[in-house]
Design a protein that fits this description.
There is one protein chain. By secondary structure, this protein is an all-alpha fold. It is rod-shaped, with a radius of gyration of 20 Å.
C-alpha cells in the first residue's frame, strides 16, 4: 500500500526529472529517414544520386529504395506504408 503523500512526492519527482537522451532507442524507419534527410541532401548536393544514397543507407542497415530517397529529396514524402516497405 502506498500513501497519498508518497504518490504526491513521486509525482513531483517525476515531473522534475531531467530529460535523458537514449542513444540506443529504436526508431521507426520514417523517423530515421527524417533525421537523416539533411545528410541525404548534402550527399545529393555533392553529386550522389538517389541510388547511391539508398546504397549508403542500406550499408548502414537502413533498407530504403532509391525511389523513396528521390521523393524525399524532392520534398514529396511518400506514404508511411511505402516508406516502411522501402518501396
Amino acid at each position: 500500500m502506498i500513501t497519498v503523500q508518497k504518490i504526491n512526492d513521486l509525482a513531483k519527482k517525476m515531473k522534475s526529472a531531467p530529460k535523458v537522451e537514449n542513444q540506443n532507442r529504436r526508431v521507426a524507419k520514417d523517423e530515421a529517414l527524417q533525421k537523416l534527410l539533411p545528410g541525404m541532401k548534402t550527399m545529393h548536393a555533392n553529386g550522389y544520386d538517389a541510388e547511391q544514397i539508398a546504397a549508403t543507407l542500406a550499408d548502414a542497415g537502413l533498407k530504403v529504395s532509391a525511389r523513396t530517397v528521390a521523393c524525399m529529396l524532392r520534398g514529396k514524402p511518400e506514404s508511411r506504408r511505402q516508406v516502411e516497405q522501402g518501396a
